[in-house]
Amino acid sequence: MTREEFVAELRRLHPLAEANPTSYRRRVWGWALLGYGFIALLLAGTVGLLGAVLAVGLAAKALGAIWKIGVLLVVFGWRVLRSLWVKFERPEGLPLGSAEAAPLLTLLRAQTRALKAPRVHQVLLTAEFNASAVQVPRLGMLGWTRNYVVVGLPLLQALSPEQAAAVVAHELGHLRGGHGRFGVWIYRVSSTWDQLMSQLEQQGGAAWLQRFTRWYVPRLNAWSHPVRRTDEFEADAAAARLTSAAAMAEALCATVVREQALDTLYWNPLIDRLATEPAPPGNAISGLLPVARTGHLPITEEARALQQALEADPDPFSTHPTLGERLRALGQPGGVPALPTQTAAEAWLGDQLPRLAASLDANWAAERTGFWQERHAELQEQRQRRQTLAERQAAGEELSADDAWALADLTEDHVGADEALPLFQALFTNSTWELAARFAVGRILLSRDDAAGLPLLDEVMSREPNFMGPCLALQEAYYTRAGNREQVRELAAAQLRHADIFDLAAAERASVEVTDQLHEPTVSETLRAELQTRLSRPELGVQAAWLLQKRVQHFPHKPFFVLLVQPAVARRSPEEVTAWVRQVAGSLDMEAEILVVNDNKQWAWLGEKARQTPGAAVYPVA
Length: 622
Prior knowledge:
Layout: H1 3-19, H2 21-60, H3 63-84, E1 94-96, H4 98-115, E2 122-126, E3 131-137, E4 145-152, H5 153-158, H6 161-173, H7 181-203, H8 207-242, H9 245-272, H10 284-294, H11 299-311, H12 323-330, H13 344-349, H14 353-394, H15 401-414, H16 417-425, H17 434-447, H18 453-463, H19 468-482, H20 485-508, E5 518-519, H21 525-535, E6 542-550, E7 560-567, H22 574-588, E8 593-598, H23 604-612, E9 617-619
Parallel strand pairs: 2-4, 7-8
Antiparallel strand pairs: 1-2, 3-4, 5-6, 6-7, 6-9
Helix pairs in contact: 1-2, 1-8, 2-3, 2-7, 2-8, 4-6, 6-8, 6-9, 7-8, 8-9, 9-10, 9-11, 9-12, 14-15, 15-16, 16-17, 17-18, 17-19, 18-19, 19-20
């Protein structure tokens, strides 16, 4: 299901859900049960076949046949179970007990009873500006969940106790019992299938099950979307009953403006220290606490950020309603809340707050030390290179096109966009870097809210589709800041169309099939010679190679090639073949898009096609 098809399906389903909620929920039940029915059918069919084979075999006294077929069925059943036995990772964080957060645990117990929610097994503290209730199935798709509440220290330090209590109640509301049980169940089922599909792709699960999940999960998500959105409203309502509608509304508004303030006042300056400090700070979270408590942007900036959030259109791919929708459902106005006199972190963690922050400091630094050191070294090298290039240019030397681009790019990163702008503009007449330079200038101008950047990005998109996604996103952000909602909607729809086309292009370039149209490659002599040079490396062990061009429907101006390679020494195991093909593919590192395939029996049809196509043989040099 493409993105556009998913959005069109949502437009069809939401009116159905509103017109007849009872009937619609029965149909969602059916979709939810279909997934479990598919699993049950596989297992029941396996058991049934095993029983039938046993009965027939005993009657015919064919014990040898029973044994052979029975083993095959048992193996199949085991593979079904093993495919479903996906490990769901528990959330990470510092465990909080009564010694660290007695007030928070007392609040959780009271809210859990009031909501008729299942017991929370563990509360975790993280360094994120977020809170969540997470259910981890201990038996995979069979359930038996362990329940976690995860709270971020930056969020607790930015909210008052009343606001944070509303946030926690909202998260617990997703687990609630009573009349909301159906919405909660659908929420869990959809989330579990989403996790299963993600884990199967990461862990290389069974192909047949992946095919089912890719068909089933998008359709389940579409049908459950109206129910899951309703569940968000009901979780807000449950939180409002336990605390107050005003507290819930203030928490929603505070998270918008406080997170932006933290990014601007704390995280962005901290990230800038990558260029000057060789190791990450050891007090990243402790240092954040005073900023989270008292830091704020100018009132006009906070008001503008809040207004944009209030006027935003719903994201069709998110089950979370917009801020405006949630406030209207609560019957509360939007506004920038005052800074808390006491934060939830101070009230709930008390004198344990410094110690817990120090523990998060250590974890934060340990997780980022390797990346920080590598990035710091890269930035130091970049600064030195920019300085060298700038000195050469100042001395009157005419830089090569690549060096001129590097100077412009590094100047923007290490000096500023104002200084880089004329350097990018000077590349408009360079055939190699023209489009990238026009994109950079358009991006910089739009970041200043200068409409002169719009036609530049339009030109870049018209000439190079690979730039379309970033260009559309930049234009959408510009019109969002300008408050032009109609233009934002048009650009959002255009991004969906482009993303779908991009996916289709990636899919047709991911493999080669016997039905594909393959022909003599149209390549320059320079590219052919470069390919031959790379294939001749002794460590690769390539005996011969043929290059074919696949006819593609999407982005045909970007040719796609298939390289059939014959090894000098035969590899016996599939693992050895795969490793060798990857080695050859990795050694090419060329601008041309090339799929490397091993010349063996599996690809005999491709070998026959390659050997019959004039001009396909590229190595050895004739």
